[in-house]
Design a protein that fits this description.
Strand order of the largest sheet: 3-2-1-4-5-7-6
Order of helices and strands: HHHHHHHEEHEEHHEHEEH
Number of strands: 7
CATH topology of the largest domain: Rossmann fold
Strand content: 5-15%
CATH class of the largest domain: Alpha Beta
Largest sheet: 7 strands, mixed
Helix content: 40-55%
Number of helices: 12
Radius of gyration: 19 Å
CATH architecture of the largest domain: 3-Layer(aba) Sandwich
Length: about 290
């Protein structure tokens, strides 16, 4: 079994499409596939199929090394132009479908969300893709602790480079949040347009996942229009969310944007820093 497992992991990692995927994710999927299939070739195919759904390469990715150089060029001058920084960040986000769809909303998107949740001092961006590049539109200070989770290694390296340029601590984390739920405490957790895919890939985990997040506010968003056919999905996803949190006394504020509906779910009242008192330790202290 161990030899077969290593063979499957190695074969998947040799794929150009998935070689930069977090190995813990590949290993977990390979273990499960080998329980279901007798032949390693079948297991390899099954892992690649599931990774295609989890990683969503069809959503798009920029060339991270080239874009890191482009960001450096606009940030490094002491008189760097905020408008030029925004233009480059928007151009890079355009490479990823979900981020591209949100570009027309950025002037109001986070302003309206943080009007409900308050401005977070620690923000968790889960399955973040290129969303941290929207920081210039968030209206947050560089003292913000912005934790960004993803399973694509080059993306994590790129985001930490960007965070340093932006004056933020480099808190992009390589982590499969389905296998290892985030445990960091925070003010707001963003999980934008990812919950339907999470539920499809990890059926039964979506409720425990939301329950485990140790934050005051969950910010969950869904597309309002289907990719194929233009069907309105708002009521479907609203029902899905309320069924998911049924039994919890979590007040919900709904925000409607063009193409995206956002649910701000209040899990806790007050400031988590007050709850843990002197035990709070900033992740910045470990840098």
């Amino acid at each position: 079994m161990d030899d077969q497992l290593e063979a499957v992991v190695t074969a998947v990692k040799q794929s150009h499409k998935y070689r930069d995927t977090h190995e813990a994710t590949i290993r977990e999927l390979a273990t499960e596939a080998l329980r279901r299939y007798k032949k390693p070739k079948q297991a390899i195919k099954a892992v690649r199929t599931q990774l295609h759904s989890i990683m969503a390469p069809y959503l798009g990715d920029p060339h991270y090394e080239k874009e890191a150089e482009r960001l450096t060029a606009v940030f490094i001058p002491t008189d760097s132009d905020p408008d030029q920084i925004r233009a480059v960040c928007a151009d890079i986000m355009h490479a990823h479908l979900s981020n591209r769809e949100r570009l027309p909303l950025l002037d109001s998107f986070y302003r309206d969300i943080f009007a409900v949740t308050g401005r977070p001092q620690r923000l968790l961006d889960i399955a973040c893709a290129l969303n941290p590049l929207a920081f210039p539109w968030m209206g947050l200070p560089t003292s913000t602790e912005y934790l960004a989770y993803d399973i694509h290694e080059p993306r994590i390296h790129f985001l930490n480079h960007y965070f340093r340029l932006q004056g933020l601590p480099p808190l992009a984390i390589l982590q499969d949040v389905a296998l290892d739920f985030p445990t960091e405490q925070g003010d707001v957790a963003l999980f934008l347009k990812e919950l339907p895919r999470f539920a499809r890939n990890y059926p039964g985990k979506e409720r425990p996942f939301l329950e485990a997040l140790n934050v005051r506010w969950l910010v969950l968003s869904f597309p309002t229009i289907s990719t194929h056919g233009g069907r309105n999905l708002t009521n479907r996803y609203r029902d899905f969310l309320y069924q998911l949190i049924d039994g919890h006394n979590w007040p919900v504020t709904e925000l409607m944007f063009e193409g995206e509906v956002v649910f701000c779910v209040q899990k806790k009242i007050g400031d988590w820093r007050l709850e843990i008192g002197n035990e709070y330790q900033s992740p910045m202290s470990n840098l």
